[in-house]
Each structure stands twice: as structure tokens, then as C-alpha cells.
């Protein structure tokens, strides 16, 4: 990935051209004379096959685009540990275990942008110990010593739960990222889980969280697990955009139409949210904006190494699309309503007990203070039923009767019916 050559990497060019600021305004920790005009990007792939997901590639492209106007190239490393050889080579240091491929060439970058931050992250620890300039997309307690930009994942997960609760849902599942990422301590996965659990507890609902691989098949599998454990589930919150299409397919396979029978809301970038049908109601992950802010924070760090680090926490609003609706309980999942028992004594009915009905009909006999109770129809003896001829005989003819004015009345007739 190539930035714009020739410009000062500490100041964005005005009007698209290079600036004339001197090199003393920026540079790495060991001096401006050894500037590389390159930023490092530590970004381990999170796909099941150790490849970059579409969301991750959006961040990579965003960083490269944001760095170019400052005259920086971007060097990408998949390092996820502090002793990864590519990470050590980036800093111009000998790799752990005697790998000398990092020696001889010096550092390769002026500063480092760290992504996929864990609660305990060896990369961040090493950068802090070495005093090497860095910023983070994400955060932990050590990243506070440098600048960072992050989403309020706990607040976003909580907001998604409350959106569903406002629609009447209370059986709400949570689909998180993969087990590997969660157990490794990735901040966004842990923060999202905490926000979901807290919101469910505040609402008095039982939380049910699931870890899910980042592919289509995993999305289908997690839906099968959710409905097997609680068939009455009517909604879910997801932070796993890579499995989103699989989630939709799984719901269709189990006869749940979105949003008629099942509501889905999540934290996902708009390309993911808009490519499924119906489109996903979601809080946006602004990859391009976060990348731009991270590059700005990195440049500030290089220009003013002693300045107070700046922290930027973003909390996008939920964009309402088409994947959520009012809760419709699954048939059979709600308790049957209970009705009071009435002691009806027919000896005190309010009408004559000799009331008779036509054959085939029932009579309702009740006291004024009791609920109606239907009783079998009373049958009359055949001897008491009068015979009715069929068809009825035609009426006799009636002559026109003159009216008082000498005319005939319109309601009389002279012909047989």
C-alpha cells in the first residue's frame, strides 16, 4: 500500500499537494533523521481460515486511504502476539528465539497502529516498554497510555437489547464472535457481552449468549442451537456480521420469517446490513471514520510525543431498517390463561325450566350471577309436534279494493302468489 511520496508525513497537504513543513515537526522516537514515511498496521486476520474478513479489509483500506494525504505508506503485519517475528522486524528488533531476520535493517516504520486489541495484549505491552510511538483502534488499560479510537460496544449491545424490549421481546439471544477471539480476550467481544448481559439483567430477562464462528455455516449452526435450547426465542442481537447471512438462512430453515416471526438487530457495517433480505436494523461500524481518526491520532503522536494522548469513543445510533418487528410469541410457548370455576345450580334458573327448544339446539340456563353453561337440547315428543303441509297452499285471490279516492291500492293483488 503506497502513500503519496514527497510530502511531510506530519501534515496533510493543502489542496492535494505536498507541504513545506520541516522534518523537525515529526518523526519516530529515535529522531526525525531516520523517518521511514511508513506506518505499521498490526492487524491479525480473524477469518476461520486465518484470512481477512470483508470488515477487516475495509479497515485496512481505510487506514491506507487516510495515511496517503500525510505522505505515509502502510506496512501490514498479521502479528497477534508481542513476540511475532513480523512485529519485531517492523520495529527493527531481533525476534524472540534468535531469529535474526529483524536485524540489520533498522526499524521499518515511524509509528504503529494496533488493532484487534485484547484485554492483555503482548504487542501493546512491548510498545509501551520500548517507548515506540503507537495508537490503537480498540482499547485496554495499557492502551490508555497512548491515543485510541473505539466504539462503545457495551453501550451498542445494550441499546440493541432495549430496542427489542421496546417491541415486546423478552426472549432475546446474543450471537457474539468466535470462541477463539472471545477466549483470547478481544476487547470488543468481551465488551459487547458485558453490555448485553447487563441490559438483560436490568430488564429482568434471562441472558443467553452464544459464540459463533465467522462464516455462513457457523451462522446456521448457532440458530439451530438457539432454537433447540429455547424454541420460544423470538429475537437476537448479533455482533458477528460475517455470520449474518447464515443466521438468516438458519431462521428460514426453521420456519421463522424475519421480521414477522423473529427479529434480528446487530452491530454491523452498512455493506453487511444492506446485503441481506430483509435489511438489518443495526448500529453502524464506521470503518472509514475510525481509520481516519486513528491516522490523525498517530500523526499527532509523531508531531507532539509529549502531549496528552487523546481518546475517542464513538457510539453510532441504531439505523432502523426492516429486520425487527413487534413480538409475536411462538404458539404454545405462552402459558394458557386460567379461568375461574363457576358453581352453577340450575334449580335457580331465571327462566321457566319447561322452556323447550327446537330439535338440534341447546338452551343456555343461568343465574344472573353465574357464567353461561350450555346444556344439551331438549327433545319434544313426536306426538306434540303439529304437522305442517309442504309446500304451503297458495292463498286465495283477493279482489282489488278501491281506496277512499276511488283508485286501487298498490298493496293489493288479484293474482295468486
From TrEMBL:
**Low complexity compositional bias: what residue ranges?**
402-417
Species whose genome carries this gene: Streptomyces shaanxiensis
Gly residues bias locations: 14-30
Entries under Gene3D superfamilies matching the protein? 3.40.50.2300
UniProt cross-references to SUPFAM superfamilies, sorted A to Z: Periplasmic binding protein-like I
Where in this protein does the record put region Disordered? 1-43, 372-417
> Which PANTHER family does the record match to this protein?
LACI-RELATED TRANSCRIPTIONAL REPRESSOR, LACTOSE OPERON REPRESSOR
UniProt key word Transcription regulation: yes
For this UniProt record, the keywords arranged alphabetically read as follows:
DNA-binding, Transcription, Transcription regulation
Q: Where is the Transcriptional regulator LacI/GalR-like sensor domain?
A: 161-324
Question: What is the protein name stated in its UniProt record?
Answer: Transcriptional regulator LacI/GalR-like sensor domain-containing protein
Q: May I ask which residue range the UniProt record assigns to the signal sequence?
A: none
